[in-house]
């Protein structure tokens, strides 16, 4: 995972942008463009996230949302065109890490300590997969995260994940 | 035929390797990550051939945690299929042509996978081996370990459960 400080070095100051937004309210459209730009930069900085075509659509306050468009290169079952579970795992790990880094109590970067993924069903071929992650508890050293992945049928999860991440000191 | 002559070694090797290759090359996602398999008898070692697009943290740099999870999952799935199909490959019921033609039993399905991240994945090739703790008729329990330069220093390990396909060629 890219740490926040490292992200700032390459111009991904979403942590600072967040604080800035709270102290000095910006024009809504301006804030939106900034956020989209920051999100795009965050993904661009992670080669594998780029390779998967991940799009960060929401980040902040310990929550993140990532979309992975359907891509034939990621197929796990050539007979049906279903996306491989590994690609879903990779996007869930990215999303969970992004949620940790966006938490107000996580000053630095993060790394995965452990991640458990449960697969409920195959994602429908041709549909994008969306993962929402929430950092629901954080201590000085560990962040606890839950994530859920769905396709267009948002009522039935494709996969869920729960994990522990490191909290690095600033 | 009381004493049939054993098959020439090259014939046996060719059949085993061709079946394994067909199994691995039929999955786009395994090609996307460039995972290959080394075979010694029935023992398989997964090889994650390093590429820049596998990077998750460009500043360390380190392999993406999601890639590690996917590598462990792919190794578990291929190894499980391999041991599941081994008797059919050996008695000639399943030929490389069957597998290439898509006429093969489905892959096992991942139910869950728990990954422990022990150290960061260095930007070089990684290896993984799966140990099947139990393969029942319906469910299998598998442990997988991954290392880089030194097999004694694992960088990740995982344990997962899989739903087994019915063993019959279509």
Word description of this protein:
The complex is a heterodimer of chains A (170) and B (170). Chain A is 33% helix and 31% strand. Chain A is built from five helices and eight strands. Chain A has helices at 4-9, 14-23, 28-44, 47-52, 85-101; strands at residues 55-60, 63-68, 75-77, 82-83, 112-119, 129-138, 142-150, 159-166. A six-stranded antiparallel β-sheet of chain A has the order 1-2-6-7-8-5. The model of chain A is unreliable at 7-26 (pLDDT under 50). By secondary structure, chain B is α+β, with helices and mostly antiparallel strands. Chain B has a single domain (9-163), classed as Roll (Thiol Ester Dehydrase, Chain A), CATH 3.10.129. Helix content of chain B is 32%, strand content 32%. Chain B has helices at residues 9-25, 28-33, 65-90, 96-100, and strands at 35-40, 43-48, 55-57, 62-63, 109-117, 126-135, 139-147, 154-163. In chain B, a hairpin with a 3-residue loop joins strand 6 (126-135) and strand 7 (139-147). The radius of gyration of chain B is 17 Å and the shape is globular. Classes of the chains: A alpha+beta (170), B alpha+beta (170). Strand 5 (112-119) of chain A pairs antiparallel with strand 5 (109-117) of chain B, so a sheet runs across the interface.
Biggest chain contact: A-B, 42 and 38 residues
The largest β sheet of chain B comes out as:
6 strands, antiparallel
What is the number of domains of chain B?
Answer: 1
> How much helix is in the residues of chain A?
25-40%
| Overall spatial form of chain A | globular
CATH domain class name of chain B = Alpha Beta
Strand order of the largest sheet of chain B: 1-2-6-7-8-5
What is the beta-strand fraction of chain A? 25-35%
CATH class of chain A: Alpha Beta
End-to-end separation of chain B in angstroms reads 29 Å
Sheet with the most strands: spatial strand order of chain A: 1-2-6-7-8-5
Number of structural domains of chain A: 1
Enumerate how many helices of chain A there are, as a single number.
5
Assigned CATH superfamily of chain B: Hotdog Thioesterase
- Quaternary structure: heterodimer
What is the residue-mean pLDDT of chain A, rounded to a whole number?
Answer: 82
Helix content of chain B: 25-40%
CATH topology of chain A: Thiol Ester Dehydrase, Chain A
| Overall CATH architecture of chain B | Roll
By secondary-structure content and strand pairing, the structural class of chain B works out as: alpha+beta
